[in-house]
């Protein structure tokens, strides 16, 4: 039986396939969460079954863990795996400096912990995620249920000090109830419209005691694999990876960030 993929799913499949070329036997790999990361997990599962690819993976959510198990991928906890060679994950937005908004799927906490414990973070996205300035996508912030109203009040005050164009705070709901993360926390979506200084905002948010983590990933990603709906794929490397860019991915379109 053949399945016809939508153009956007073609782009997701193409970036997942490209990301797979960075993964080799013996690696410890962090697996992201979301629909794009799911294409990667399925593709890796195919490689495990057909080539016997010997890798150990650390999932970033219960959903990714379940899919990886179905695919026959060997899993470990982050503590058992130790340090990871790389993490591949999706994103909700990325800017020219490779800063990201993540957490649309509510897995930002584990995603950030796993990516931080990795030598490199590769982000796989379709072209709709590329922005000049972060903030059109509501910024997810994971908060404790304890004292959530007080946390929201404090957050409102902190946002008044920030270079943003919107300040609406919306508790995320699913099926009429507060959304609960894998860690038992909740998510606030911040409708900021434009984030003038993502680094300052990320630091300010994490000063609020009830905030567990925010969805800004600053300076963590070094490679973006960007897929277009026509199936073409571009690998964009942060410029510090210049030597690697020319050697690791010669088959496709590769450019350095900022280079025309
Ligand atoms: C989950 C995430 C996802 O990576 C992000 O939401 C992108 O998802 P998708 O690939 O489905 O667009 O951060 O917490």
How does this structure look, described?
The termini are far apart. The chain folds into 2 domains: 7-129 and 219-249, 3-Layer(aba) Sandwich (Rossmann fold); 139-212, ACT domain (Alpha-Beta Plaits, 2-Layer Sandwich), CATH 3.30.70.260. It is of the alpha/beta class. It is built from 8 helices and 16 strands. The longest helix has 17 residues, at 35-51. The strands form 4 sheets. A 7-stranded mixed β-sheet has the order 2-1-3-6-14-15-16. A 4-stranded antiparallel β-sheet has the order 8-11-7-12, with helices on one face. The model is unreliable at 241-251 (pLDDT under 50).
Which CATH-level-2 architecture of the largest domain? 3-Layer(aba) Sandwich
Please tell me what the overall shape is.
globular
Relative helix content: 25-40%
Q: Which H/E pattern describes the elements?
A: HEHEHHEEEHEEHEEEEHEEEEHE
CATH level 3 topology of the largest domain? Rossmann fold
Unreliable stretches (pLDDT < 50, length at least 5) are 241-251
Ends distance:
42 Å
Number of domains: 2
Query: What is the average per-residue confidence, as pLDDT, rounded to a whole number?
Result: 93
> CATH class of the largest domain, anyone?
Alpha Beta
Number of strands: 16
For the report, how would you describe the main beta sheet? 7 strands, mixed
List the strand order in the largest sheet.
Answer: 2-1-3-6-14-15-16
Compact summary:
The chain is an alpha/beta fold.
């Amino acid at each position: 039986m053949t399945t016809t993929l939508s153009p956007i799913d073609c782009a997701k499949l193409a970036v997942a396939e490209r990301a797979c070329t960075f993964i080799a036997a013996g690696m410890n790999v962090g697996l992201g969460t979301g629909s794009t990361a799911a294409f990667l997990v399925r593709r890796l599962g195919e490689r495990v079954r057909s080539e016997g690819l010997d890798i150990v993976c650390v999932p970033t959510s219960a959903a990714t863990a379940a899919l990886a198990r179905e695919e026959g991928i060997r899993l470990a906890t982050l503590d058992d795996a130790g340090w990871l060679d790389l993490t591949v994950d999706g994103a909700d937005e990325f800017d020219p400096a490779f800063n990201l908004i993540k957490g649309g799927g509510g897995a930002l906490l584990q995603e950030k912990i796993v990516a931080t414990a990795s030598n490199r973070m590769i982000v796989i996205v379709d072209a709709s995620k590329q922005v000049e300035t972060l903030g059109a996508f509501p910024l997810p912030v994971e908060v404790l249920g304890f004292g959530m109203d007080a946390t929201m009040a404090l957050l409102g005050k902190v946002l008044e000090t920030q270079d943003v164009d919107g300040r609406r705070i919306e508790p995320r709901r699913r099926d009429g109830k507060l959304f609960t993360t894998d860690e038992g926390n909740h998510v606030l979506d911040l409708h900021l419209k434009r984030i003038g200084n993502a680094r300052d905002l990320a630091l300010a948010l994490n000063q609020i005691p009830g905030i567990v983590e925010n969805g800004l990933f600053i300076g963590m990603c070094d490679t973006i694999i960007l897929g277009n709906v026509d199936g073409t794929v571009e690998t964009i490397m942060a410029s510090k990876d210049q030597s690697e860019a020319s050697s690791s991915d010669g088959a496709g379109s590769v450019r350095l960030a900022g280079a025309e």
